[in-house]
Amino acid sequence: MKIMVGGTFDPLHDGHRLLIRRAFDLATPEGTVIIGLTSDSFANRKSHPIHSYADRYRDLVSFIKSLEPETTWEIEELHDQYGSTLDADFDALVVSEETFPVGKNINQKRRERGKPCVEIHMIRCVLAEDGRWISSTRIWRGEIDTHGRLIQQQPQKEGSSDDMRRDVG
């Protein structure tokens, strides 16, 4: 099977890892996995800072190689949310709960172009220790790490500016 999956993957977290593993599982050794990685210009629409395409590409390749896949794979640069999914010949798309609507939209647009719909395989979002989704935004905010472990907030030292503001107010 030829499988497609895409994202910004920054920082690469356990939810992303599950998504990518699922794509390789579906493809089987005889198949192909195409991973769309958002371009710098497309990724910069996010509400938090994004590492460069080159850095994200390097991290993605490192993770894929750690899987030691027998499956053929490639990474394509995404300049929009669809990439080559609207015209490419492939069998299935792997999405998360969060991106499932995009998968449905891809099939709608494929129908409009006279292309066959593809299977959509949705994985559940991976939960952090607090029961909420692991997300890049939460990681960037310093709430959790890439494995969903809660990051302990450093207690304020007595006499810090925060303490003074509370005392004055």
UniProtKB/TrEMBL annotation:
Keywords: ATP-binding, Coenzyme A biosynthesis, Cytoplasm, Nucleotide-binding, Nucleotidyltransferase, Transferase. Pathway: Cofactor biosynthesis; coenzyme A biosynthesis. Its main location: cytoplasm. Residues 4-139 form the Cytidyltransferase-like domain. One of its GO terms (cellular component) is cytoplasm. Residues 159-169 have a biased composition (Basic and acidic residues). Its EC number is 2.7.7.3. It is found in: Cytoplasm. The keyword Nucleotide-binding applies. It catalyses: (R)-4'-phosphopantetheine + ATP + H(+) = 3'-dephospho-CoA + diphosphate. GO terms for biological process: coenzyme A biosynthetic process. Residues 147-169 are annotated as: Disordered. GO terms for molecular function: ATP binding; pantetheine-phosphate adenylyltransferase activity. Reversibly transfers an adenylyl group from ATP to 4'-phosphopantetheine, yielding dephospho-CoA (dPCoA) and pyrophosphate. HAMAP family: PPAT_arch (MF_00647). Belongs to the eukaryotic CoaD family. This is Phosphopantetheine adenylyltransferase. It comes from Methanospirillum hungatei JF-1 (strain ATCC 27890 / DSM 864 / NBRC 100397 / JF-1). The gene is coaD.
